[in-house]
UniProtKB/TrEMBL annotation:
GO terms for cellular component: plasma membrane. The lineage of its organism: Bacteria, Bacillati, Actinomycetota, Actinomycetes, Micrococcales. It is a multi-pass membrane protein. This is Peptide/nickel transport system permease protein. It comes from Microbacterium thalassium. PROSITE patterns: ABC_TM1. It comes from the Bacteria.
């Protein structure tokens, strides 16, 4: 009761003293203050990432102008390409030019195709985002019910099967799993296409058929990881938490204890894993898109790296890193939404 009164009094005090308008609403709301603070932290982090990406691409061996002009090009032709790409300017000036263009929405042109990078991204981003979102959905749909069932009777037959299968699948790299899926479902059973992508505007079922195998290749290893983590955390909660004993003493049904009490607390740990895995999952699309010939950002970045298309590689790497940053920001916000103590404790 003391803590509740303290929180209410503090909240009332903040509301009374807060200025009017948008800033006033942000100051009065612990959740909005937390979001604003995290966004302010993310901005310099993204700035640092952009510098790091630019520096790494600058440090890559080889002469981009020579590669673009061709090995048989004359020095004059190489110099002309260098000027066309802006490589004759100092690195700091080129970085500031790129940063200014990024802020204003001008991402430059591909040095290979001559197309606007923003146009290339718009075509490819939807494919990668569909793969990532479906892979996460599949991983959670698989992991949560299996972990709940396994944690209900630790050491039982189902639990042992789950542990063995999840450990086995975790040991298999996702590109090997992708090839196995192609072998089984595309070559042997002939039920799903081995390569290619069908846009959703050409039919929902055709689109889903084209992404099932890549989504499974991305999502199944993560599902195994989530299952093992969630199952272990649930078992620990059920065996050692005092509030579980209290619920049992009150006669609460075992399934309700498992779902409403143990899983609710374990979901915080699962949420952390989700945030940490998003960056890895987006990076994993580079290989998976290549195997399944999916025209996404991963393939675009790989093609850009092979052809030394700096403008394309630069923005792709930055977007992959930014996705990881915003995923962690989202997890922080979800923590505060699920647990009010974090909102009030973050002042």
């Amino acid at each position: 009761m003391t803590d509740t009164r303290t929180v209410e009094e503090t909240t009332t005090s903040i509301r009374t003293e807060a200025p009017a308008g948008l800033l006033g609403r942000v100051a009065a709301s612990p959740l909005l203050r937390l979001i604003a603070r995290r966004v302010l932290i993310a901005i310099p982090l993204l700035f640092a990432i952009s510098i790091l990406v630019f520096a790494l691409l600058e440090a890559m061996p080889g002469d981009v102008a020579q590669q673009q002009a061709g090995m048989d090009a004359t020095p004059e032709e190489v110099e002309a390409v260098r000027k066309r790409l802006g490589l004759d300017r100092p690195p700091v000036e080129r970085y500031l030019s790129w940063l200014g263009g990024f802020v204003t929405g001008d991402l430059g042109r591909s040095s290979v195709s001559g197309q606007q990078v923003s146009t290339l991204l718009a075509e490819r981003m939807a494919v990668t985002m569909e793969l990532v979102l479906l892979a996460f959905l599949v991983s959670l749909v698989i992991a949560v019910p299996i972990a709940l069932l396994a944690a209900r009777k630790p050491g039982g037959f189902f639990d042992r099967i789950v542990m063995v299968l999840s450990m086995t699948l975790l040991a298999v790299p996702n590109y090997v799993l992708a090839l196995l899926l192609v072998l089984v479902f595309a070559v042997m059973l002939r039920t799903l296409p081995a390569i290619g992508y069908v846009p959703i505007d050409e039919g929902l079922w055709a689109n889903l058929r084209s992404v099932i195998l890549p989504v499974l290749a991305l999502g199944v290893p993560i599902a195994c990881f989530y299952t093992r983590f969630l199952r272990g955390d649930l078992v620990e909660q059920l065996n050692s938490a005092d509030y579980i004993d209290t619920a049992r003493a009150k006669g609460v049904a075992p399934w309700k204890i498992l779902w409403s009490h143990a899983f609710r607390n374990s979901s915080f740990g699962l949420l952390t894993l989700v945030g940490l895995n998003i960056g890895g999952l987006v990076g994993g699309t580079i290989i998976i898109e290549q195997i399944f010939a999916m025209p996404g950002m991963g393939m675009l970045m790989l093609q850009g790296a092979m052809s030394r298309d700096v403008a394309v590689v630069q923005i792709c790497v930055f977007i992959f890193a930014a996705v990881a940053v915003f995923a962690n920001l989202f997890v922080d916000v979800m923590y505060a939404v699920l647990d009010p103590r974090i909102r009030y404790g973050s002042r």
